[in-house]
Specification:
Largest sheet: 6 strands, antiparallel
Distance between the termini: 33 Å
Shape: globular
Strand order of the largest sheet: 4-1-3-2-5-6
Bound molecules: guanosine-5'-triphosphate, magnesium ion
CATH architecture of one domain: 2-Layer Sandwich
Structural class: alpha+beta
């Protein structure tokens, strides 16, 4: 795309420090300079049509980041809240994200199949998501961590994956939620053995070595009177963000002739990003929110 001539004038005069502005013919010659060919080195990373585009971000070296910022173990609600807040900022900023799912230090953003945002260019989509998320993480840090300082700038890597069918997309999200469940059950059992059972980290690791889900549930229940199913849903299920229509009621003072000032209540419907901490593997979630998925082609 050609830049507006005025922009080129400005750039030219700044870079070259020429006192007089170049003629229009010089500018168009510059725009098609002999260097122009380097553009052809750019690769086409347009995402295939009719596919959901998933961008997954993951915190870089968050094992260390969590330690250095005193995250509570196994789950830090401030950190999880900040991840969700940053993800909401991404959804509000970038159109066409139908659903996002997050757990631990990761968040997946699902762009509609039909999106034409950034002409479906993978690098543009991924970098916009990653930069908006990272800057939001820093921007909202204080809201969640209060006086605890952010010691260094956190980073997030990103990847793009395409899913052609609703089944594939649901299986992807199920995979991430199953991962959340497996890790959280392990971490809950591990830290309960350490914090309440008085085991060392090595002893707790040995105790859990080779155990199945049922065994971990049993340890928690029989030894610590803890029913894993009653643990916080945010920790067990992760966070699902979707767009929903929400009624918002507000009151306003208006002046009515002869009657004077009156308080009136207004209700208006707005699209808002809402958070859900529920199972997204079974059909019920998808039946309750039929607008998220598009028709399979
Ligand atoms: N204590 C605590 N740690 C957390 C929490 N959420 C994430 N983490 C840490 O973040 C890590 C995330 O795991 P990974 O993404 O696999 O590992 P990573 O250290 O970020 O390494 P890379 O992603 O490969 O850069 C976990 O292993 C925890 O150490 C939390 O709520 N509390
Ligand atoms: Mg990570
Ligand atoms: Mg991770």
């Amino acid at each position: 795309m050609l830049r507006p001539v005025s922009a080129l004038f400005e750039k030219f005069s700044r870079i070259s420090c020429h006192r007089s502005l170049p003629s229009t013919s010089t500018v168009s010659a510059m725009a098609k300079s002999k260097y122009e060919y380097v553009r052809n080195f750019e690769t086409d990373d347009t995402c295939l049509r009719n596919c959901y585009i998933v961008v997954r971000l993951d915190g870089r070296n968050f094992h260390k980041f969590a330690d250095q910022h005193n995250f509570t173990k196994p789950n830090d609600d401030r950190a999880l809240g900040l991840m969700s807040r940053s993800a909401r900022s991404v959804m509000e900023d970038l159109e066409d994200i139908a659903i996002a799912y997050g757990q631990s230090d990761e968040f997946s953003f699902v762009f509609k199949k039909s999106t034409n945002w950034f002409k479906r260019r993978a690098s543009k989509l991924m970098t916009h998501v990653a930069s908006q998320f990272s800057s939001s993480y820093v921007f909202f840090w204080k809201e969640y961590f209060g006086e605890q300082p952010l010691l260094y700038p956190p980073g997030f890597d990103g990847r793009v994956v395409l899913y052609p069918s609703n089944r594939n997309l649901r299986d992807y999200l199920s995979w991430r939620q199953a991962d959340c469940h497996i890790n959280n059950l392990y971490n809950t059992a591990f830290w309960t053995l350490v914090q309440k059972g008085g085991l060392s980290k090595t002893q707790a690791e040995e105790r859990l070595n080779g155990t199945l889900s049922g065994d971990k549930n049993e340890i928690l229940f029989s030894e610590f009177n803890l029913n894993y199913n009653n643990e916080c849903a945010l920790h067990r299920k992760g966070t699902t963000l979707i767009w929903e229509k929400v009624d918002e009621t507000s009151t306003k003072k208006i002046t009515v002739p002869k009657e004077g000032e009156k308080e009136v209540t207004f209700t208006r419907t707005r699209r808002k990003v809402t958070a859900h901490y529920c199972d997204i593997i079974a059909d019920s979630f998808w039946n309750e929110h039929p607008d998220i998925l598009e028709e399979d082609c």
